[in-house]
Amino acid sequence: MSPSHLLVLILRRFYRGIIILDAGWPLSDSIEKTELSLLIRVVKKTKAYFVDFLAFKLSDLVYLESKQQLRYCRKKFLISRKKLKIRFTGSLEKSQFSRNKYFGQSIHADCNNCNPVVFRGKYNKEAGLELLSNVAKVLDCSVHLIVLCPTLPEKIKFPQSRNVTVIKEFLPDQELEFIMSQAKLMIGQLGNSSRLNRTIPHKFFESARLGIPYLTPTRKAIQEIASEDCIYYISNTDEKRIAQQILAILYDEELLAKKAKNFKNLYEKNLSNDLLAKNFIKEITES
Predict the structure, then answer these.
(1) Nearest to residue 20, comparing CAs of 285, 284, 277, 273?
(2) How far apart are CA 187 and CA 209, in angstroms?
(3) How far apart are CA 1 and CA 165, in angstroms?
(4) How many CB atoms lie within 10 A of CB 3?
(5) Around Cβ 193, how many Cβ atoms within 10 Å?
(6) Domains of the chain and any CATH numbers
(7) DSSP helix/strand/coil, 185
(8) pLDDT tens profile 179-194
(9) Backbone dihedral angles phi then psi of residue 146, each to the nearest 5 degrees
(10) pLDDT at 219 over 90
(11) Counting beta carbons within 10 angstroms of the beta carbon of residue 64, is it exposed (0 to 12), middle (13 to 18) or buried (19 or more)?
(12) pTM exceeds 0.70, yes or no
């Protein structure tokens, strides 16, 4: 459970000044662990709801990650619109990354002429890794799929093929940066969940910073800030159709480069950490 929400409950008992909660999303919106019993899940969900409710009510200002999240929280927790603000998550930025990492070299050793496509993220029902594993089975051999998922369960089987690489180790930031920077296309969350219409994954911002076009099912929160000028939206969840779309995307190199440039420009203009920090400081000083 996020300490930020809990700290609001503690602070308000003895602090009468302005409290600003950088929530991002409500705790009760977190992904349930299906291995838990129904009773435990209901208890945890109820507890999280009341922590959310009290934290939002007792805060003077609450920051959320998207307009969709703002509308959802306003209705669910009956919060005044005046106390809700939007602040994008952003991406980790570093000035220098290593280019001589073993993992980066080994990944491309067997696939020098392939087009790298990367999925990065932990395993949960929103990731859609079951679907992605099926896509991998019918993916053209000219495409090199790289899956970075330290929590990938044994039940999900990707094909043992020269053009499919699955990395389950936790990699240092430099190695992750190197691998992602080689990608021609980044794959977003492929799962089915109403929450995905309200949240914006971290890898979206990472892709924008690196100028790597992003492939995702249509998501309302992402559509708020990114158009088809820099995003590839898909509406079909059939693995064969997705595999064909990936191949078609990589084939049109001119459009791919154009979207990469547009995505990078979008980040520098609207989503960079420097800009987000300046806007955040300006808002809280004016509150």
Answers:
(1) 284
(2) 15
(3) 33
(4) 8
(5) 15
(6) 3-87 (no CATH), 102-271 (3.40.50.2000)
(7) strand
(8) 999 999 999 999 988 8
(9) -115, 120
(10) yes
(11) buried
(12) yes
